Amino acid sequence: MDQLHKRFTTDQIKALLKGYCQGTLDRLAIQEMLEINKTRLFALLKQYRRDPNNFSLSYHRASPAKLKASVEEEIAKELAQDKQLIEDPSLPINTYNYSAIRDRLIRHEITVSLPTIIDRAKDLDCYQPRPRKKAHDREVVTATIGELIQHDASHHRWSPFAKDKWVLITSLDDFSRKLLYAGFFEEETTWSHIKAAQVLMQHYGIPLRYYVDSLRVFRFVQNRDSFWRKHILQTDEADPQWK
Length: 243
Hints:
single chain; four-stranded mixed sheet
C-alpha cells in the first residue's frame, strides 16, 4: 500500500480530522477512506489537535550523523575482542553477538544502532552470515510433554575468563523444547548423570523415555570377539549404573 502522503493531500486529511473532531464524521468511515487502522488514525488526531493550522503529512529525512573517531575506535575494539574469542579453539563460541557488543558500548556511554555495528563488522572482516540449517537425517517425533527427554553433555571452557574446562549436562524435553535441567560438573562421571536425572525427576516427574548417546555411562557396548578373547555379554546385555 502506498504511503498516506502519496495518496492524499494535507488539506484532505485535515478536512477528515476536523470532521471527526466536530462529530460530523465517524471514526470507522475515516479509517475506511484512508485505509488505516485505529492506532494510525489516533496518531494523526494527536498531531492535528496539537496544532491544526500547521498540521502536515510531509516530513524531512535527516542525513545520518557521522560517528566520532573515538566511537569508531571503540566499535572496532569490541569487534576485535569477539573475533579473538571466536578464533580460540578452546571456547564454544563460533558466532558474533552484535547485541552484546551494543550493550557493552552503552556501558561506555556510547549509543549506536545494531545495523551500524553490523556495517562496521562487515568492513572489518568481523561478520558472519547466518549459516544454513543442516537437515537432520534423524528426527524424533513426540506427541506429549515428558514422552522423551534428550540428555547430553558437553565439555568446554565455557567462559573466556575460565582457566579449566567444565562439563555441562543438560536435559531437554523433546516436545516442549523446555530445558528441564542444566548443571556444570568438573568431571563427567556416572554419578553426575545420576544426580542430573534425580533432580529432573524430583522436580518434573519420571519421563517415559530418555534419548542418550552411546557413552559407556548409558550403554554397555561390546566390541567383536577375537581369536584370543570370547565375550559372554554382547551390546546392551548388561545394564550400567545410570540405566
